[in-house]
Amino acid sequence: MIAILSLIISILAIAIVLLYIFYRQRKQILENLRNSEAQMRLLLESVGDGVFGVDLDGNCTFINPSALRILGFNSAQDVEGKNIHSKIHHTQRNGSPCPDEQCNIYRAFRENQCFHIDSEILWRFDGTHFDVEYRSNPIVVNGKVTGSVASFSDITERKQAEEALRISEEKYRRIFESILDVYAEIGLDGTILEVSPSAQSQTGYPRVELLGKNMSSFYATPSDREKLLEQIYRNGQINDYETLMVDKDGNEHFYSYTGKIIMDANGKPLKLAGVMRDIAERKQSETTRKLAEGTLRKAHDELERYRNHLEELVAKRTIDLEASNKELETFSYSIAHDLRTPLRAITSFSQILQENINEQLDSENLEILGRIIAAGKNMSQLIDDILELSRITRSNLHFTNVNLSKLANEIIIQLKLSEPNKEVQWNMAKNIMVSGDLQLLNIALQNLIENAWKYTRNTSPALIELGVEKIEGEHAYYIRDNGIGFDMDYQAKLFEPFYRLHSPHEYEGTGIGLATFQRIIQRHGGRVWVKAQKDQGATFYFTLTKMHSKTPPASSKLNKHGELA
To answer: Residue 342: pLDDT above 90?
Structure first.
C-alpha cells in the first residue's frame, strides 16, 4: 500500500514539474509573440511607405499611418473593415472604371502571386489622384492564403522628373539632329564617341563611319591637335580655337572649335565635348577685309598727300586772290574817283548852265539839260552802289545777336521822316532775334524796305510787313507789301545786278539793291526767294542758317508819329 502511495506521489510530483515547465514555456511564447507584434507595429508605424492588408473579401484588415497620410484619411476606422478597392483603386488614369477583377492587389491573394506595379494611380480621400508604385504579396498561414498585403509610395515627383527628362532628351535629340555645326564627343585617346548627323555635310563621312575613328587623322597639321589639347587641359575648356582640317576628299577647311572637358562622378576627366564650325566664309571675309584695309590705307595716304597739296594750293590761291582783290579794290576806287570828277563837272556845269540860261532855252532844251543832270546824278549813285556791292562781297563777317525788328523799325522811321505825307501801315513781329553781321543785315533790310516803300507809292494806304514763318523746318523771314507787284516770269532775273523791271522815269533806282540784298544773305549761309502777283504786291523771303531765332509771332503797328504802337 505504501509502495502504491509512493508511486502516486512520484507521479504527481512529475506531473507538477511538467505543468510548471509547460507554464513557463507558454509564458515565454506569449512574451515573444507580444514582442514580435510590438516590433511589427513599430515597423508599420515607422516605415515611410504606405502598407495595408486585405482579407479574401477585399476588406482592409490593417493600415499603417503612412498609408493614411498619403491617402488623406483621418484614421484607420475610415478604412479598416471596408472594401479598399472601392475607396482608392476604383478608376483608371483615363477615367474608365477599374473592375476589382483587374485589381492587382486582389489578384495577389486570388492567384497566389506577387505583383510589382508602377504605371497606375491611386485615389485620395479628397478625390485627387497620384502616381503610385506598389507591391502586392499574398498572406499565407499554415499553407493557406488568407489575404494579401500591399506596400506603396507616391511617385508623382519621380514621374514628373522622368517626363521632364524625356522632354529634355527629345529637345536634345532634335537639336542634335538639326544643328548645322558639328557636335562631337571625343574620348581622351582621341576616339570619336558621338557625332551629330551634320558631320556628313561638313566632312563627307557618314556618321556611322566617323564613330570609332581617331580625331588625329583629320588634322591637316598634327601639332594643332597637341596645342588644342594643351589649352583645354590647362583651362578645362577652349573657345573659338581655329584649326585646319581635312575632309574625306582631301580638301582642307578652316574650323573653329569650342569645347570643354567632361568629368566623371569623382572629378576625373572622362571625355571632351564640343562644337566645330566651318569658318571658311569668316576667313574669306578676313582676307577681304585685310585687302580692303590695305587699299583704304593706301587711298588714305594718297588722299592725305592730295589734301596737303590742296592746302598748299589753296593757301597760294588765297594769297593770290587777296592780292587780286586788293588790286581790284584799288582799281575800283581809282576808276570811281576818275569817273566821279568828270561826272561832278558835268552835273555842276549843267546846273550852272540851267540857272544862267534858263530863260533863253525853250522847253525841249530845258528837258534835255534836265536829263543830263539826272543822268549824271544817277551815274554817280550807280558808282556808289557798285562800290558798296563790291565791299559787301569782300568784307569780313562779325557775328552778333541782331534784333531785326529794331533795325526795320528804325528804317521805317527814317523813311517816314523823309516822306511824312505818305499814308502807310507798318506791321511787324516783335523781337525777331538772329545771329549775323549787324551792319550787313541793316543794309539788307534797308534795301528790302526801301524797295517796298518805293513800289507802294501809288497805293493808299500802303501796307509793309515784317514777319517770320516756319518753312521746311527752318525760319523764313519776310518783307511783304501791297504795291504794284510783278509777273513771276521775271523772278529769275530779279536779283541780277542792273536788272530793272521799270524804267527810271517810272521808279528811280540803279538795279543794284536786290543784288546787294541777295549777296548779304548768301554770305550768311541763307537763301532768298520771292512770291508776287501783278498789282497784288510782293513778299521777299530770306533765311539765315546761323541764326538763333527767339521770335514770338506777335505784331505791332506804327502810329501817326512814326513810332511803334
So the answer is: no
